[in-house]
Amino acid sequence: MKKIESVKNPLVKRIKRLQKRKQREKEGLFVIEGFHLVEEALRHDVEVQAIIAEDNKNIPSNHSGAGISLVTEQVMKEMSSTETPQGILAVCSLPRQEKPLSIKERGSYLFIDGVQDPGNLGTMIRTADAVGTSAVILGEGTVDPYNDKVIRATQGSLFHLPVIKGDIEKWIEACQTKNIPVFGTSLNEGTTHTAIEAQNGFALIVGNEGAGVQEKWLEQTDQNIYVPIYGNAESLNVSVAAGILLYHLKLFH
Amino acid sequence: MKKIESVKNPLVKRIKRLQKRKQREKEGLFVIEGFHLVEEALRHDVEVQAIIAEDNKNIPSNHSGAGISLVTEQVMKEMSSTETPQGILAVCSLPRQEKPLSIKERGSYLFIDGVQDPGNLGTMIRTADAVGTSAVILGEGTVDPYNDKVIRATQGSLFHLPVIKGDIEKWIEACQTKNIPVFGTSLNEGTTHTAIEAQNGFALIVGNEGAGVQEKWLEQTDQNIYVPIYGNAESLNVSVAAGILLYHLKLFH
């Protein structure tokens, strides 16, 4: 197979354009980088349309169906969104449509209200996966989960559980209809988290790094909770707080 | 006061050079950016040598003793390590010497073994502050806490508690001499963290993002623990795991 050697090859431009959310949504495509992520995508039913690699050796064995292009190191560097590219990337299809709202008995849910930092969102998706959360719901104003930094921070967890853009109001109602309690988080309103017992099912809402969870959601929750601060920090990082609360609330059978 | 208007002013170069660890250590100086951090540094006995701002209005009122220089927006942009500078930065003295090793009765300690990501280190220092940890010890191979990204992620917590470069082996011994149990963290060796009760005093060791805590330390601990993974994630982000464990282990009186 002939290698693409020119950084002016149209493929290079096309892939770079997918670094922008608008273009991803227009084309219904997103890009992942690195052997581990490509392997995870292939393993978890992501539609991988094309794999671009510096070398055949670096391609996961389960790649059937995906077109393969080989490129030089320089071309890879030009396409990559990282400073030290890992020699492989893949173009994947975005999920075709929003999944319908459906709440499981004893399900556990993480609702994310306007988190802006890609590292924070990715880390929370990874933690939600680790704790066995049923789904992560991304409210309006939350950073796009198909942003390259988010995907990197999920370490593949983006492909392990449903991560759905949705209307937080509808999801709160849907949980409450099924008697699944909804917990809001606040800097200091409500109850210390340790006063709440582990739950058979629950939804947890975490909010924007600066503004927290919007007041309108905090008014609709069953209870608002916070992780107490004992030292001089003003608050915890949102992905750390989410980790503490998810592991605290989840009842492990 | 006359504003510095030229990006060729020697001050600009001098401040930019402090983005490098070697230069910081050579000059005994580090740089912080943003109103909140400068205010925190002034409030917590950091020796602030110089404040550089776009405007007198943006300078914290408690700045006595620090020299002030005004600069244009363009000069600030040139000096800043962020894409959207906040209009103020300060040059501070590094702590003059390593603080002596001293363990408090009922103290709680976070030992960090080779964490590389500045965001992770900064977030852990912030969490250690929030939970009321006595000190954070940075073992060999850990990213410099005076790196601008670390400082930003600490949100000021770097100035709230001792953050000390040290020899993890000596700190393990010092804790054990005072009957403070030392817990190592491992992906799956040892005990689930929930099997351990909250402690009057403890030390927790967390490790490098890829390699974890070095085996030689795991052999010297009183017990090794892990946060169980229930989903498909291979591991937790180290700063999330540290948050869960610190809040779990700390006994709140």
Automatic annotation (TrEMBL), chains A, B:
Source taxon at top rank: Bacteria
Keywords from the UniProt entry: Methyltransferase, Transferase
RNA 2-O ribose methyltransferase substrate binding domain residues: 31-98
Cellular component terms (Gene Ontology): cytoplasm
Gene3D superfamilies referenced in this protein's UniProt entry, alphabetically: 3.30.1330.30, 3.40.1280.10
Keyword Transit peptide: no
Biological processes per GO annotation: methylation; RNA processing
InterPro entries: Alpha/beta_knot_MTases, MRM3-like_sub_bind, Ribosomal_eL30-like_sf, rRNA_Methyltransferase, SpoU_MeTrfase, SpoU_subst-bd, tRNA_m1G_MTases_N
Alphabetized GO MF terms: RNA binding; RNA methyltransferase activity
Pfam families: MRM3-like_sub_bind (PF22435), SpoU_methylase (PF00588)
Keyword Transferase: yes
Family: Belongs to the class IV-like SAM-binding methyltransferase superfamily. RNA methyltransferase TrmH family.
Protein name from the UniProt record: RNA methyltransferase, TrmH family
Organism, scientific name: Alteribacillus bidgolensis
